[in-house]
Amino acid sequence: MHPEPDPPLAGYVVIDLSSGIAGAYCTKLLADGGAEVIKVEPPEGDPLRGWSASGAEIPDGADGGLFSFLSCSKRSVIAEPDADDAFVDALLAGAHAVIWSRGPGVAGDGRFAPEVIRQRHPHLTVTAITSFGLEGPWKDKAATEFTLQAWSGGIVGLGRGAPDRAPVYVGGQVGDYLAGAYASAATLASRLRGGAELVDVSKLETAVLGLTYYPVSYYEMLGRPWRDARRLTVPGIALAKDGLIDIGCGTAQQWFDLCAMTGHDDWIDEDSPLSITQQANEKADELYAWVGEQTVDEIRDLATAFRIPNAPVANGANVQGLDHFVARESFVVNPRDGFTQPAHPYRMAPAALRPPEPAPRLGEHTDHYRSLPRNRIPGRESGETAAWNPISRLSAPRTGLPFDGLRVIDMTTFWAGPSCTHLLAMLGADVIHVESTRHPDGTRLIAGIPVTEELWWERSPIFSGLNTNKRGVTLNLQSAEGRELLKRLIATADVVVENFTPRVLESMGLTYDEVKAVRPDVIMVRMPGFGLDGPWRDNPAFAYVIEAAAGISWLTGYPDRNPYEPYSVGDPNAGIHALNALLLALAHRERTGEGSVVEAAMVDAALNVAAEQVIEYSAYGALLQRAGNRGPAAAPQNLYRTNEIDEFGRPDSWVAIAVSTDAQWSGLCDALGRPEWVVSGELATADQRHAHHDLIDRHLSTWCAERTGDEIVSALWAHDVPVAKVLQPHRQTELAQLRSRKFFEPVGHPVNPDTLHSTLPFRFSRGPERVHTTPAPLLGQHNRELLREIGLDDDDVDRLEAEGVIGSAPAR
């Protein structure tokens, strides 16, 4: 028998100076990949050890379920500022990377601030995760997950909610998980060029990319916002006979199929002046009545047969029993505490992830690391490594971008896949985006540009936002010659990424084995919605059904109404997880010379960021519930209307306020002038504030209703209280913090006007200074250039165009 391969990051040493979900999830992903993660804790332990979202009591000496999940396969040491500075410095000297966020213990000591660590240990990748970034006018402002969603525009960005109530945030602290996944990918990208830099991750910027859909580019290019009002998605999440189901209707064809499925062929009007959304809303009552007469399984069987996106609405109690997840073994037992947790967010072979190992008890490994000799720094001239790092040594830092020299065939469409390959392109990879004239990238078709307008398919701000720095080729993959040309391109590439349903590539003969025969060391990243196997594998998957199936939707909305579809996080969350998996496959190839197939299913990534629900239910019997804009970590936490009329002429302007600590409550009391109601003894503790949330809401609503959003933010930030205006997402450029960090860059285009585009949610101290180098490609723009690279001449290219194998306009 062959021994199990080492995981890709074996020998890569990471010091964890973070607290909170973002840092913990970042280091979990690194530990899953095989890194040696050493968590440095204060004597009282990481605050997450005592956390339960349901309020379950954590016995002395035990840890909360979420901590146990996020800390699998890590090591724990105890260190105190002053007393243990030398010990912590020795750990840093023997490591490759450090993950830092503000918190108690060593991380709160200025001698271990990110810039100071970087100066003292210049070989390290120092990844800092903060609310707004390490630089800029807001760098020290108070924030929480909730207020960051408000600042990002994510609370109102996709029209979520109903107009008769306040807009509503995406439940479950998804923004923290997104930030952790970006931090992990950025750390591994830095590793590719030898580390030795500071990585500055902004949670606000990860929220912009994860919870909104390129709203600035959309507004600037088309002169209108993506959404100007809240409205329910129809059918969306609806109540069937025996439970909740999510039914999607994202394209005209899906609307026509929905009409036929419900027995209403008479509703189909291909010449209707109304959008499909408007048509669906007109028929909402009849659609909901039809859903209510069927069972979930009956509707799902029909919708699947009609190729209409659909999923049951999962929660902590039912998700692990859904047949697809049972068949795929999507959940595993926590190795220390025995509750249920999601399996890894991606799968790969022959590269192998580390199976989960028990989370450490507080300080469990302190004596071990204190007893090790303090050796030389890895990567220095001597070539020696620290005593606890016997395997891997980083090469000397190199110039250039992390992915310089990497060639990627990008067979992705819409949002999830292109968001992965876009990050590669922005960091130096040569990304070749493959489309066809019969099936252009779906984001070219969703901007609402009339087909009568010249070059209408080139005017999509969404396609533009996702595809800068790429080259574009069109190939008819239904033809034998198109498939052969694709294989010739693959032979020149390191990576292939695709996000079709599994049957599509299988029908074309483009499985991993076929691709590997062309390029033996290729890394093939497959991003199906529901995975490569299991009963749902061929179901079409859009963000909303992924969010429903994973449980994210369950926590989004008001308790007395059906959940709302987040309609956002499912795609970019899948993209950043796929990038993490690809980086591990690249590390495996460095070590062994082998390629890998990576399965980065959208739903597996979503299950991981919704992990707390199944953990709380299996560990404590607690079913987490949606609570509007309230949440378990803060009280008060809510949206409050200001005295302003919004840009659409409505009294619909709001601020977000969240108080997580006693110090913040005291600051809020000071900002309000300490009126009698706030100084009463019944609000002194967090438990009391949760119990009297209605009272607090009434008073805060009255106070906010007399002020503008700017006045409220100024008053509360002056007292270190987390607060935000609920921003319309196309107004992101007005935020001083994003302007200071140059988060948006102008991009020229041969068809469209110069337009601001979002960049990366992290900054490398070694650059790039500018992210966008070329605009998104026109359809087939690089056909001739790329086909020449694989040996064709101009006559060959002309013939292929005449025969419809390639082209530069959508086929009629």
From TrEMBL:
UniProt keyword annotation of Transferase present: yes
Disordered, as annotated region: 365-384
Organism of this sequence: Mycolicibacterium poriferae
InterPro entries in the cross-refs: CoA-transferase_III_domain (IPR050483), CoA-Trfase_fam_III (IPR003673), CoA-Trfase_III_dom3_sf (IPR044855), CoA-Trfase_III_dom_1_sf (IPR023606)
Keyword Transferase among UniProt keywords: yes
Name of the protein described by the UniProt record: CoA transferase
Phylogenetic lineage: Bacteria, Bacillati, Actinomycetota, Actinomycetes, Mycobacteriales
GO molecular function term, any single one: CoA-transferase activity
Cited Pfam families: CoA_transf_3 (PF02515)
Alphabetical keyword list: Transferase
SUPFAM superfamilies: CoA-transferase family III (CaiB/BaiF)
